[in-house]
Design a protein that fits this description.
single chain; mainly alpha
Length: 128
């Protein structure tokens, strides 16, 4: 409910994250639906918002907006950075910026690459 009030001016009104697998295997108690014991947040009193555990899913939710599922699948399959798909757009933007803004853009892009690298490391660790 807070997201409805405070998230009106943001791309994502809320982001629900978890670090452990949520028990979907019957960990419900007192004859309540499992959503009441496994959900962190609710869109309405009767609509739970599922928590995201996978780092890549979080990254794509934050930065992959506008991509089709096919684009995201292709990026995962080819192990390409999201930034590799945007080279022409980044080049065009960079040419229109002043020197200080170009430095800021480069730093921002480096941070995105670092986040992608960390996600790959976590995925590799989770698969082993």
């Amino acid at each position: 409910l807070h997201a409805q009030r405070f998230g009106q001016d943001t791309v994502l009104p809320s982001l629900e994250l978890c670090i452990e697998e949520i028990d979907r295997g019957g960990g419900c108690a007192y004859n309540y639906h499992c959503a009441y014991t496994t959900s962190l947040a609710w869109a309405t009193p009767s609509q739970p918002l599922p928590a995201i555990r996978e780092p890549r899913a979080v990254f794509e939710r934050l930065f992959g907006a506008g991509d089709s599922e096919q684009d995201r699948s292709e990026r995962r399959r080819t192990d390409r950075s999201m930034l590799d798909w945007m080279v022409s757009e980044v080049d065009r933007l960079s040419k229109s910026l002043g020197a200080m803004d170009q430095v800021a853009l480069d730093e921002y892009l480096q941070h995105i690459r670092e986040v992608e690298r960390r996600i790959q490391l976590m995925e590799a660790r989770n698969l082993s």
